[in-house]
Amino acid sequence: MDGEILAATLLPSENMTSNSSMTLEQKTTFAFVILLFIFLGILIVRCFRILLDPYQSMPTSTWADGLDGLEKGQFDYALA
């Protein structure tokens, strides 16, 4: 009896239709999920690149570069 149940679950029966093609909705969903995985992979790679070299994307100028005649620590005195 166990052999009959196992054979029934593994082998398709004769009265079932063999429609193995996906519907348009399933294809669209599958393509959208694949695009989401690609986007996730790009984000993961970008985050790891930032973690490995965080100062690569920062500009080399500082906030004091635009001030004429002031040192970096003198900004508070310039406002007074």
Describe this protein's structure.
The protein has 80 residues and is mainly α. Helices cover 54% and strands 0% of the residues. It has 3 helices and no strands. It has helices spanning 2-10, 24-52, 75-79. It is rod-shaped, with a radius of gyration of 31 Å. It starts with a helix and ends with a helix. The model has no long low-confidence stretch (mean pLDDT 74).
How are the SSEs ordered, and which strands pair?
Elements: H1 2-10, H2 24-52, H3 75-79
Transmembrane segments: 29-48
Membrane topology: Single-pass membrane protein
Keywords: Membrane, Transmembrane, Transmembrane helix
End-to-end gap = 94 Å
Q: Helix and strand string, N-terminal first?
A: HHH
Low-confidence stretches: none
Q: Largest sheet, if any?
A: none
The total of helices stands at 3
Q: Rounded to an integer, what's the Rg over CA atoms?
A: 31 Å
Question: Could you give the count of β-strands?
Answer: 0
Relative strand content: under 5%
Structural class determined from secondary elements = mainly alpha
- The global form is rod-shaped
Q: Helix share of residues?
A: 40-55%
Global mean pLDDT: 74
Short synopsis of the structure:
The chain is mainly alpha-helical and 80 residues long. It has 3 helices and no strands.
Features:
mainly alpha
